[in-house]
Amino acid sequence: MTAFAVGALIGSLAVARRPVPAPRLAGLAMLGLGLALAVAALAPSVTWAMPLFALAGLFDGPLLSATLRIRADHAPPRLRPQVFTLGAGLKITAASCGSAVAGLCAGLPAPLVLLGIAAVQVAAAVLYAVVRSPRTRGTTAVPEAFTP
Predict the structure, then answer these.
(1) Engineered SS bond to 61: which of 8, 20, 42, 48, CB 3.0-4.6 Å?
(2) Does residue 145 lie in a domain region?
(3) Predicted TM-score of the model (pTM)
(4) Long-range contacts made by residues 123-128, C-beta under 8 angstroms, separation at least 24?
């Protein structure tokens, strides 16, 4: 956890120093996080896994800032509080679901569980790329409930 947190701090500082467009950063960060965790799952020892967890953190820190930036850029000013509150609620709900799944997987070997976590991150990156593709860009509309 410490290696992951140190990596996240370094990644956040690096992005603050050299900004990357948030949509691009989000996709790259999800993919990098998933791949780093997948390689960490295959590490032969904790000594080998520690730098890989730091690398995963390096992608995780910027992912949070990219997510918040995208919310701020795309939420209408009068709806920002709702968007951010809903986003926080969804994040807590997802964390709770993840904890439940982790409990169900408690009897499995740790590398297998970590590979599952990595697979979810890579799948999220792929889904994000599909949603952001030129064919689907601009096809979403603001739901009627959120229009003035």
Answers:
(1) 8
(2) no
(3) 0.81
(4) 123/34, 124/30, 124/34, 125/27, 125/30, 125/31, 125/34, 128/26, 128/27, 128/30
